[in-house]
């Protein structure tokens, strides 16, 4: 079978791999028919990966980066892809939650659903999955190479899903698969940054600081607007500003990716999706007293400036952490369906699955999406979007 691999920065190619087999009674084999590129994979598939590798060798990045992603990071050949909608093609005898032919979303993090971390909702830190090779590792993910586990990538003809009763989230009836192409990671990440806070702060003012976490910020802005919040979206990209406006947010342009204006307004909820060092203090200083500042973006430097005295005197909460899709995917899918949320506006360009090496490596679009027909039951074609 084919599996998309990163061979070198900017070089992607289909490689032949053995077809996956059921290894445990609660495994499933799935066939992805929709896949999208995560924001972090844009960096890995571009020349910026060389910069990251240099910074890692020079010890300019936090040591956990080497522990989590290896040295060098994304060493080729590295199977890629960790956002998909898939069709179940085989299940083990202990799998009862889904069956052959079901359309499902697979979380990008592997989790068992039963350990202490999973029961607390921290599925990205599942201790069972992180130890399933006999040696504990920081992460258990799809599509990031061998340091994150033996799971391969989601841009492939087939792949194995362990703990399938817990891992696989069935699509609600009537929900367009292309609409939730990014639900495995980025869409869920944007959801968790705003929805829990807006439940307790209806009609809150929300600021989303856009940047290198491209689609996460756009999803967060659109979801917050759909919840009734007053949303400002700050970015230097005219393309992303236009998408944010189409999703109901008020676009505000800043001078450049690394340049921020002096904070002049306060917001109850702030999301830093900038992925640049200056974004953190700007976001914190833009948070109203008693407010919440969410940081879903990756700040990989060995040290990142945080204005703690400002936080003390404004009594704000700073939350930094991973998304845990294994805990909330069914809720996210139901919310998108029930609210008719047009998530496809973030990723409107759809390419043929066979063209993955070219489409996945493009720098021209914010978030490329791949599509092929599922094996069973006709679905709307990619042309609809």
UniProtKB/TrEMBL annotation:
Keywords: Metal-binding, Zinc. GO terms for molecular function: metal ion binding. Its cofactor is Zn(2+). This is Alcohol dehydrogenase. InterPro entries: ADH-like_N, GroES-like_sf, NAD(P)-bd_dom_sf. The keyword 4Fe-4S does not apply. It comes from Nocardia pseudobrasiliensis. Residues 72-165 form the Alcohol dehydrogenase-like N-terminal domain.
């Amino acid at each position: 079978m084919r599996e998309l691999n990163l061979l070198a920065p900017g070089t992607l190619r289909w490689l032949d791999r053995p077809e996956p087999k059921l290894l445990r009674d609660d495994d499933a084999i799935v066939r992805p028919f929709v896949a999208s590129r995560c924001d972090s994979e844009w960096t890995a598939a571009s020349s910026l990966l060389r910069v990251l590798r240099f910074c890692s060798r020079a010890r300019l990045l936090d040591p956990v980066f080497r522990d989590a992603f290896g040295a060098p990071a994304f060493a080729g050949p590295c199977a890629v892809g960790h956002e998909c909608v898939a069709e179940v093609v085989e299940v083990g005898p202990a799998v009862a939650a889904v069956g052959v032919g079901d359309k499902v979303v697979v979380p990008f993090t592997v989790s068992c659903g039963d350990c202490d971390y999973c029961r607390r909702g921290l599925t990205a830190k599942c201790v069972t999955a992180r130890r399933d090779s006999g040696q504990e590792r920081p992460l258990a993910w799809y599509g990031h190479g061998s340091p994150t586990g033996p799971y391969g990538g989601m841009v492939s003809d087939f792949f194995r899903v362990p703990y399938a009763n817990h891992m696989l989230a069935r699509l609600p009836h009537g929900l367009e698969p292309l609409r939730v192409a990014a639900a495995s990671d980025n869409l869920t990440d944007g959801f968790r940054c705003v929805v829990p806070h807006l439940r307790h702060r209806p009609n809150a003012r929300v600021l989303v600081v856009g940047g290198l976490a491209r689609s996460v910020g756009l999803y967060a802005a659109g979801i917050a607007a759909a919840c009734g919040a007053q949303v400002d979206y700050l970015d230097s990209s005219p393309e992303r500003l236009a998408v944010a406006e189409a999703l109901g947010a008020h676009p505000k342009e800043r001078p450049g990716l690394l340049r921020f204006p002096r904070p002049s307004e306060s917001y109850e909820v702030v999301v830093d999706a900038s992925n640049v060092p200056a974004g953190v203090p700007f976001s914190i200083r833009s948070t109203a007293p008693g407010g919440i500042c969410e940081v879903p973006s990756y700040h990989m430097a060995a040290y990142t400036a945080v204005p703690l005295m400002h936080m003390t005197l404004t009594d704000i909460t700073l939350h930094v952490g991973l998304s845990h899709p294994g805990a909330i995917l069914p809720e996210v899918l139901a919310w998108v369906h029930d609210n008719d949320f047009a998530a496809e506006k973030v990723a409107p360009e759809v390419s043929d699955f066979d063209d993955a090496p070219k489409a996945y490596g493009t720098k021209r679009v914010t978030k490329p999406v791949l599509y092929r027909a599922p094996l069973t039951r006709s679905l709307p074609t990619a042309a609809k979007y």
